[in-house]
Amino acid sequence: MSHTRWRLARERKLTEGYTESEDAAAERAEIRLAMAFAKAVYDRRKELGLSQAQLAERAGLTQAKISRLEGADTVPTLPLLRRLAAALDASLNIALDDDREEVTFVAHSAA
């Protein structure tokens, strides 16, 4: 069989009228949010030129905790979000909608 004829199971199910359960859709949304947050932390840390260890020191965390956050392996608490935003010298914006999750750190201006 040629590779062009292969289809992912999800694609095949969707083309056959398969609909995802509400639980699966909710879990997929949670994963997207965790990944968006992880990417936002990583991007802002790199923008500042910080290592994970340096960010951890600024936030009063361990390097392992930063690694888990950037790997989307942990769910941050509200106090942790505040500490990260302060350590990254930024405001944290989270936009949640039915079909999108957006997480951004907006740098504080040097005014």
UniProtKB/TrEMBL annotation:
SMART domains with a match to the protein in the record: HTH_XRE
Taxonomy, superkingdom: Bacteria
Coiled-coil spans in chain: none
Annotated SUPFAM superfamilies: lambda repressor-like DNA-binding domains
Listed Pfam families: HTH_3 (PF01381)
Gene3D superfamilies per the UniProt record, alphabetical: lambda repressor-like DNA-binding domains (1.10.260.40)
Domain HTH cro/C1-type: 41-95
Protein name: HTH cro/C1-type domain-containing protein
Organism: Streptomyces osmaniensis
